[in-house]
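Late entry, written up from scratch paper. The run itself happened at the end of the previous shift, but nothing got recorded in the book at the time, so transcribing now.
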Amino acid sequence: MADRETLAAYAANTETYRKVVSDAGGNAMLDDFMKQLPPQACVLDFGCGVGNCAAVMQAAGHLVTCQDASPEMAAMACDLFGLEVEIMSFDKLELETAFDAVWASFSLLHIPKSDLPDILARLHLALRPGGLLYVGLKRGSGEERDRFGRFYAYYEEEELAGHIRKAGLNPISVMHDDIVGMSGTVEPCLHVTSRKPGCLFRLL
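Output as recorded:
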């Protein structure tokens, strides 16, 4: 179930968040992610926010399914980019072998650590054999709320990679960088791209 305080924080600061995303120029990992996709890939943007990354993937010819728990974020994604967003919490995903890739950019950090194995298992099931999973999170340890009331779970590389392997996915790249988020402070980040075993094959 989505965290109510986190949803309330985004509802009250949607425009601020949009500006932060716009000023940052989006997620720097997106170009590398798209280079690994087949043409017209079916991609799930899992926690799409204001839709900036989904819009880039869609413009590149990919078939993007957008999901987010925040009605306000979904509305802005529609207003800004004409995206159709399914409003749902992460624990409601029940699709099987539906996607060539999943893009989870700074979304899974809003779920408790105890829930991560279940969510990763759902993403594993939703991916086709050979499918790609990107997860972006903030580095650190423990769980806490920021000054806006948003819930955060922090991970270091080995902890996150261990969860991903237990879910049946193979990490293929790990990157570290820093971002300035809505709080205005520089925060260290962790980016892990993984692949589901098997060969990705489908008829276009």
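Residues 135 and 193 are 6 Å apart (CA to CA).
(Scratch paper discarded after transcription.)
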